[in-house]
Write a structure and sequence with these properties.
197 residues, 74% helix
């Protein structure tokens, strides 16, 4: 899952911070975090592990793997955010706009916890409203180009967005079959958090 799903699958402001902080904090330092933020780190890892091993996601990866090989999972993650942003059973466009604004506000309030490179990215993310614009084709194309740019061993001109567009219906079905399972799994994790509070 990508930024939108990670920010959505939380149960408190602090967990949102932890979801984003996961990629920036050394593993040995995570236990020094406040409890709710640590829960967000744990949720992030649970989401990634569950997603990467789910049979439906393994099928979705097969769409991208001939073109991008081991990076297929990263492009599936971005694709899932696109379909989540269009899922009217979960949120409306206005609801997603409000969600995006809330996430930026929370992250800015906790920006002191993040390294400088994240703060630079956050400013860009907010200015360009990445979270909300995952619902736009140009937004998801932009995000996929970002993944290509970061991938060390991939040709930056690979037609990944075109591949996504050609397989949009199949990928949407994968999303519909998968995401309720992920929601149930994460709600179970949150129930465990509550039992130890």
């Amino acid at each position: 899952m990508n930024y939108l799903a990670h920010s959505y699958l939380t149960f408190s402001d602090e967990q949102i911070v932890g979801q984003f902080l996961n990629d920036y904090i050394p593993n040995k330092e995570r236990f020094s975090l406040p409890e709710k933020i640590l829960q967000g780190v744990i949720l992030h890892r649970e989401i990634d592990t569950y997603t990467d091993n789910h049979p439906i996601i393994l099928q979705a990866k097969k769409i991208f793997s001939p073109l991008v090989r081991l990076y297929a999972g990263a492009f599936v993650d971005v694709a899932m955010d696109y379909f989540l942003s269009h899922d009217n059973t979960i949120n409306s466009p206005i609801g997603w706009k409000n969600h995006s604004s809330r996430v930026y506000k929370i992250l800015n309030e906790h920006s002191f916890r993040f390294p400088e490179n994240f703060r630079i990215m956050l400013a860009k993310m907010e200015t360009e409203d990445w979270l909300y614009n995952y619902r736009e084709d140009w937004g998801i194309e932009f995000s996929m180009k970002n993944v290509l740019h970061k991938a060390k061993y991939l040709d930056k001109s690979l037609p990944v967005f075109e591949l996504f567009s050609e397989n949009k219906n199949i990928l949407q079905q994968h999303y519909q079959d998968f995401f309720p399972d992920l929601q149930l799994h994460i709600s179970t994790i949150n129930s465990r958090f509550k039992t130890v509070e």
